[in-house]
Design a protein that fits this description.
Helices cover about 30% and strands about 20% of the residues. The protein has about 140 residues and is α+β, with helices and mostly antiparallel strands. A 3-stranded antiparallel beta sheet has the order 1-2-3, with helices on one face.
């Protein structure tokens, strides 16, 4: 979901001379998501899962590293209000469709000039849990 925004962001931040090469995150997306889906099926990765794709500074129009952030959600994530806050009604409807097991959401960019804190790991590295702490106890999803 939000693939049109991801594609637009790739075009916005990539130097034009690299758009058709494998350094383009838009071109690498499908192979990356295939591996993640395989890991979810084999239960190596638990949902909800965050991942990001990196655009090197030498390929970026801003000459800085850009991270394109994604989140993999399934139907059980809809039971937890933490994940519902940022979703549009259209996305909630799509996730509730019985034919869909899980969805990959593009969350935006980390590391652009608008994002001044480029050291923010946002739960991607280290031992931080993927599910945020809730004041009233554990998330009812898992």
């Amino acid at each position: 979901m939000n693939t049109d925004i991801f594609t637009a962001d790739c075009r916005k931040y990539m130097l034009d001379c690299f758009l058709n090469y494998s350094v383009n995150p838009n071109l690498r997306f499908h192979s990356r998501i295939d591996k993640i889906i395989d890991d979810v099926i084999r239960e190596k990765i638990n949902i909800p899962h965050k991942f990001r794709m990196r655009l090197e500074s030498r390929h970026c129009i801003e000459s800085r590293i850009i991270y394109f952030r994604f989140r993999v959600l399934d139907k059980s994530c809809l039971q937890c209000n933490v994940f519902l806050k940022g979703l549009s009604n259209e996305m909630k409807e799509a996730l509730s469709d019985e034919r869909i097991d899980f969805a990959v959401l593009y969350e935006g960019i980390q590391g652009s000039q608008q994002d001044t804190d480029t050291d923010d790991k946002d739960g991607f590295c280290g031992s931080q849990p993927q599910v945020p702490f809730l004041a009233d106890g554990a998330c009812p999803v898992r």
